[in-house]
TrEMBL record, chain A:
Pfam families: Cytochrome_B. SUPFAM superfamilies: Transmembrane di-heme cytochromes (SSF81342). This is Cytochrome b6. PANTHER family: CYTOCHROME B. The keyword Transmembrane helix applies. Keywords: Membrane, Transmembrane, Transmembrane helix. Gene3D superfamilies: Cytochrome Bc1 Complex, Chain C (1.20.810.10). Signal peptide: none annotated. Residues 5-223 form the Cytochrome b/b6 N-terminal region profile domain.
From TrEMBL, chain B:
Residues 31-158 form the Cytochrome b/b6 C-terminal region profile domain. This is Menaquinol-cytochrome C reductase. It is found in: Membrane. It comes from Gordoniibacillus kamchatkensis. The chain crosses the membrane at residues 45-65, 106-128, 140-161. It holds the Pfam family Cytochrom_B_C.
């Protein structure tokens, strides 16, 4: 039945070439851990993506309860972690995933660095990778404020103070992030918007570029 | 024409004529330069990846179930005792700002120059390291720079965390999320509903024994000018609240602070005697302050 449904759609939209473009390629021996165990280092990028997907999904569930205002933010996180069925799992996955994604991304970067895979013709993909790195750190920084407990509040206060010490543009960065005189209601809504709309959108665009380039260039050869 | 096509015939839409009709597929990378046991991505390799993914997911879930995500008490901007700490992967940057040539007048070195150069250098590494050599042990300069950076980051992260732990021990502070978790566990053990502190009402410490003779002395003494009639202090100017001070200081400690001052607080004894208070009054005052316990 699925086959005839697929055929029905394919007949109209000719979708086969689209996914075939993505799917049809071989995995060479030197990156396949089934043949050389040490090739597990080539899995780090894929695992980073896997955890990124977990982050996006668990984050979507978190926003079903989370309320980005200074009165309710803490209370909603508290409610989610202690009263909602499986809420503690959803929040736990997002919390630990945020650290793991940084770890995996770091390992992936080191793999690419030490195998010299950033060299011609893959320079552009390395630069895109570094931008992804920056976006990920931004997601970590903005997400840290959202539970609105003391740890979140004071870390953000210090973070913004450090950003404000940048010469020339420091004050503008501060205004942009903080929104008002102190870290407060406006800061929280801004961080929320940046964390769930702006940065994920940028991240997805960059990832699309990253994957397109990998598919186009293939994985780098053996050392 | 689409309306008189034979059944089963495929219609191909050309669409906007400015878009070239795609005739060529994205090409298969050619791995003949390094032949070996390559295998198809779909389904062979993807299935193996799937299995690895499942194992990783189980690992993450085990972590999540054994260590719930921490949550402290609601943010209280007037809290002056809280030690700010960023998430662990920012610790090395945070620690880096604590050295003489990366703080105060030189803070630009710490916030912009060094991290900026490092990030820029890393970003542009494909354009700096131009040799075709890929093996790391044949690229000693590039590899050494990275290894030194990694060691420095490791050291800074460790030092930052170590200092934080020391400070907690020294000031006898239990991190709030740990305290909160213990509270929740205790409430559960006692069969009570989990307490949920809501913002604003965050652990307000009440004044103890406002009718004590010491309270009257406090209003007459110099203290009130800084610490305030309600003992709330002025957190924004670095003057701590004295509510709950009895938790950490004894009567003798407080007498000592009155006589000798502390940190930014000048000694107060002479001024108060000058204001007409007696030693007995000051004794009452210290006694009352030591009664200010949060529980
Ligand atoms: C969300 C973060 C990222 C994801 C999901 C991701 C994903 C991937 C994947 C799946 C691959 C295929 C090879 C492999 O798995 O090792 C790859 C290759 C690559 N990545 Fe990433 N990556 C991320 C971040 C980065 C970063 C931060 C950099 C470096 C600055 C980077 C640079 C590269 C380069 C240059 C390649 C090509 C390597 C080669 O052909 O051998 N990526 N990436």
């Amino acid at each position: 039945m699925f086959k005839s449904m697929y055929n029905w759609i394919d007949e109209r939209l000719d979708i086969t070439p689209m996914w075939r473009d993505v799917a049809d390629h071989e995995v060479p021996e030197h990156v396949n851990p089934a043949h050389h165990f040490s090739a597990f280092v080539y899995c780090f990028g894929g695992l980073t993506f896997f955890i990124t997907v977990i982050q996006i999904l668990s984050g979507m569930f978190l926003t079903m309860y989370y309320t980005p205002d200074i009165i309710n933010a803490y209370a909603s996180v508290d409610y989610l972690s202690h009263k909602v069925a499986f809420g503690v799992i959803v929040r736990g996955m997002h919390h630990w995933g945020a650290s793991l994604v940084i770890v995996m991304m770091f390992l992936h970067t080191l793999r690419v660095f030490f195998t010299g895979s950033y060299k011609a013709p893959r320079e552009m993909n390395w630069v895109v990778g570094m931008m992804i790195f920056g976006v990920m750190l931004g997601l970590g920084f903005t997400g840290y404020l959202l539970p609105w407990d003391n740890k979140a509040y004071f870390a953000t206060q210090v973070g913004i103070k450090i950003a404000a010490s940048v010469p020339f543009i420091g004050d503008y960065i501060k205004t942009l992030l903080q929104g008002g005189e102190v870290v407060g209601a406006v800061t929280l809504t801004r961080f929320f918007a940046i964390h769930v709309f702006f940065l994920p959108a940028v991240l997805l665009a960059l990832l699309a570029g990253h994957f397109f380039m990998i598919r186009k260039q293939g994985i780098s050869g053996p050392l | 024409m689409a309306h008189d096509r034979k059944p089963g015939e495929k219609v191909v839409f050309v669409g906007d004529s400015r878009v070239r009709l795609k005739t060529e597929r994205l090409k298969q990378p050619d791995y003949s330069a390094y032949p070996g046991k390559s295998e198809a991505f779909i389904p062979n390799f993807l299935l193996k990846e799937w299995m690895v993914g499942v194992v990783v997911l189980v690992g993450i879930l085990a972590l999540v179930m054994s260590e719930p995500a921490p949550l402290g008490y609601p943010a209280d901007p007037t809290n002056t005792a809280f030690i700010p700490m960023p998430d662990w992967y920012f610790l090395f940057l945070y620690q880096f700002l604590k050295y003489p040539y990366t703080s105060d007048h030189y803070v630009v070195f710490g916030t912009v120059l060094v991290p900026g150069l490092a990030f820029l250098g890393l970003m542009l590494v494909p354009f700096l390291d131009l040799s075709p050599e890929r093996r790391f042990y044949r690229r000693p300069v590039t590899s050494a720079l990275m290894i030194v950076t990694l060691l420095a980051m490791g050291y800074l992260t460790y030092t930052s965390w170590h200092h934080y732990k020391e400070e907690l021990k020294e000031k006898n502070i239990i991190p709030e999320d740990v305290k909160r978790e213990e509270e929740l566990r205790a409430a559960k053990g006692a069969g009570k509903a989990a307490p949920s502190p809501s913002a604003g009402a965050a652990k307000k410490v009440a004044m103890v024994a406002p009718d004590d003779p010491g309270a009257a002395v406090f209003k007459k003494a110099t203290c009130v000018a800084c610490h305030g009639g309600e003992l709330k202090g002025m957190p924004s100017s670095g003057i701590p609240a004295l509510l709950g001070i009895g938790d950490t200081l004894s009567k003798d400690d407080i007498l000592g602070i009155i006589k000798n001052g502390k940190g930014n607080m000048p000694a107060q004894y002479k001024d108060n005697i000058g204001k007409g208070l007696t030693d007995a009054d000051i004794d009452k005052l210290a006694n009352w302050l030591s009664m200010q316990k949060s529980k």
